[in-house]
User: What shape does this take?
Amino acid sequence: MSKMELPVIDLRLGQGSRRGELVRQLREALTTVGFIYLVGVDGYDEKELLRLTRWFFSLPLKERMKISRKSFDSECKQQYRGYFPVIPNEVSHKEGFEIGLTMDTQPPYPENLVAKIFYEKNQWPSSPSGDAETAAYFKTWMENHYQKMTEAALELMRLIAEGFGAPREFFTPLFDPHHLSTLRLIHYPARPHPPDSARDGDYVIQTAEHQDSGMVTLLSTFEQYPGLQVRWTDNSLLDVPHRPGHLVVNIGDLLATISGGMLKATKHRVIDSCGDRFSVPFFLEPKYDGNINIVLPGGSTGLTEDPGQRVNYGPWVWEKIIQYAEYKDLIKLREKEGLSLY
Assistant: This one.
């Protein structure tokens, strides 16, 4: 492994006799750096993903706001899924569009209002120019891409489990059948006049340095748009360049905890690259009532000192996401509605 370069993991090696080699490579990378390039994801089409992402953010703001969250437009009904605009004067300077799992059945846990928020139906844009065909294609393509990312992420979880001597399907009960994973399209507009809070020397910050909160993140980057920086093992910041056909993958804080700290949830940030930037992360997340107080073999305690104590993912992640600017209004919603997390 080069000292200042993310290791490359080829998912295709897991299909045959070299699976053991892949398991070892992945464990070494994720216990040292916590970030990798991932190649060999079946059906991954970054060119079409970028084209459709640009299409969405080229829609008039009025059209995007029609599918925003209620906290940004009181006329909207959704609280969690959909579009969010740039929030003025925040360190985070981005707009986004989020979708979750498409379910043909009724959402689970109908008696739990918080769970109902997490399992909201996806919102989809219409085309103001009357191009209904493009809007329908966007929906179908993104649903298929979501499924491809889900399958790749779950295969990574199997490989990680094997790397620690756990059963291959060790993590599967956390996600089956109604996981809360999120696909987020992001547009970072240029930031010519940032607040002082968004400056770090000569750098202008678009997303502050942070660790992801969940299990694993599969990030699509694009050649024209640099800006991702990773906090390296020597505490320096490493620029992560785009590689065609490669996803950038990192470990979240929850998975790091489940591993007893052996897997590294590495800090990273996005800086302004003096122009528009696009990226598309997929966040693999457990189901609402998935018990996340588990530990991989070789780890110590999990989320609590009592390994028999149940910790459901939904209540745990609610407390995490309300720390982010685009979700802060959920605090007001909980207080207003008297929502119970359980």
